[in-house]
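Q: How do we represent a protein-ligand complex in a form that can be generated token by token?
A: Start from the inputs.
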Amino acid sequence: MTQFRTRITHFSNTIFDGSYVEKSQCIFTLIALTLGCFAILLSFTLLLTDAASNINRQGYVELLEISSVCSLYSLILTMIGNFIKDRESRWYAHVCVFSYVMVNVFILFYIGVYSMGTGIALAGAPIIGLILFDRRLIFTSLGSGLLIFIAFNVFMLTNNLEYAPIVQNQAEPYRDPIWLMTMLTFVSGHLGLLVFIGHTSISRWKEREAQVTFLSTTDPLTHLSNRRHLMEHYQQEYQRAIRQQSPLSIFLVDLDHFKQVNDTFGHLSGDEALKVAAWTLKDTLRETDLVGRYGGEEFLVILPDTDGRAAIQVADRFRRALQANAIELPDGQRLTITASIGLNTSIPKSLTDLDHFLASADKALYQAKNNGRNQVTIAVENEQAA
Ligand SMILES: Nc1nc2c(ncn2[C@@H]2O[C@H](COP(=O)(O)OP(=O)(O)OP(=O)(O)O)[C@@H](O)[C@H]2O)c(=O)[nH]1
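Then emit the structure tokens for the protein with guanosine-5'-triphosphate bound:
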């Protein structure tokens, strides 16, 4: 099972990220297999149905020959791909895509162009092509395929070609279960590929979207929210607190003497210290609180539905935890870092105070630094509230 999954992953990686030659080879290996199986089914159909049934045996023999030749041709085309040095060769991709169109048009003509099979192939092939190849390449092949399709129509209308030569009653081929089986078997390969490509494209698209969201909202060093995401969240929480008239607390954390940490232990150790501070903050907070990197060695914590008293407890719990967790450096030395914290709390009234609320927390932080660092200071205007 694991091996099967690995093969599927390898196949999907090649079909999506491989070179033009590799992508074409993948598709043509599938076509060779599908047509091979289709030819086997046709042989059984010929063996097991009697001459009296509604199928045209001569038409079936021709279809069997065409499918076998096309299967062999697909296999040869796949093998030729191995000898092509330019892996992004456009002419090889052109030959493959055009061959794909031709193979389909021919077989569908034998089965009956006005069938569900044609619908699936016509709708599916361009979608698969546009996902995997270049637009120009697909539009040229699609154009030539449609021209051939129209040519077949003209020949049929002028009675130069027989419509759906594999059935006796061409006006109502769908009344024949063997015809239906033949069409469904031919279509199943296209349908399978269409579902596979669709499913993989959507999964990849979702994965990329999640990645982009992660990268645009996360600080790469600490994996906390970055400043942009943090400020968005701050504004949302501020608005919510105004609406619900609930308390909102924030605190700004600045690591003490961080320049000295960098100068003494090196920048990598400084980075390590930043990560430890980030994890300690995360550990201290609730699920609903948000912490992010506000600047170089500064963090902002947003505590919704939290009054000053509770916020001081959280801030001080973090301050003590940080001081207690000495960081083990790669050379065995132990580094203790401390932080100064400026806190503000309020039941906000108006969005116009948003910046002022944060600026007051910043002032309180400045005060904490001036008072000797490694402490929590509350913004003057809210000392009573806390
Ligand atoms: N290693 C590392 N250092 C950083 C990063 N971002 C900012 N810094 C450093 O943090 C230091 C901040 O120094 P200062 O603003 O002078 O403050 P301080 O030395 O912490 O002193 P006080 O804040 O007054 O306690 C600078 O040396 C920056 O280079 C980072 O991502 N990694």
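The chain has two domains: 2-217, 227-382. The chain has a mean pLDDT of 89.
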